[in-house]
Structures are given as C-alpha cells and as structure tokens.
Amino acid sequence: MQNKLIKSSTDKAISGVCGGIADYFGISSLGVRILFIILPANLLIYLILVYTIPNSPPTL
Asked: Is residue 9 part of a domain?
C-alpha cells in the first residue's frame, strides 16, 4: 500500500502537519518541527500545508 500524506490525528501540536509529514517520511516529528523553526518562510509554508493536506480519517 502506498503512503499518503495526511495530517496526524495522534501526533499533533497545532494541526498535525508536522506529525503527518514525519509519518510519511518515517522520521521523528521533532526533527520536522525543528526544520520548520529553521526555515526562513516557515509560517507561510505551514499555513499552506494546513489548508492543503487532508485530515486523517476518524477512528473509533
């Protein structure tokens, strides 16, 4: 099965974007969060990703 980039419902600090990216690439979500802090256009990129990455399906 192919991985899909979706927001994480379990590893979320604000909206689950960093957790979803970390799950997709199989890396630590802390590393993704640090990259967003270091990047110069971090807020703009994050806002774009919040509205373009789909939410994870609800679980029971």
From this structure: yes
User: How does pLDDT run across 18-29, given as a tens digit for each residue?
Assistant: 999 999 999 999
Q: Please indicate whether residue 59 or residue 21 has the higher confidence score (pLDDT).
A: 21
Inform me whether the pLDDT recorded for 1 exceeds 70: no
Could you tell me if residue 60 is inside a domain?
no
Q: Determine the structural domain holding residue 32 and report its residue range.
A: 1-54
State the total domains in the chain.
1
d(CA 54, CA 20): 10
Task: Output the CA angle 23-25-36, nearest 5 degrees.
Answer: 85
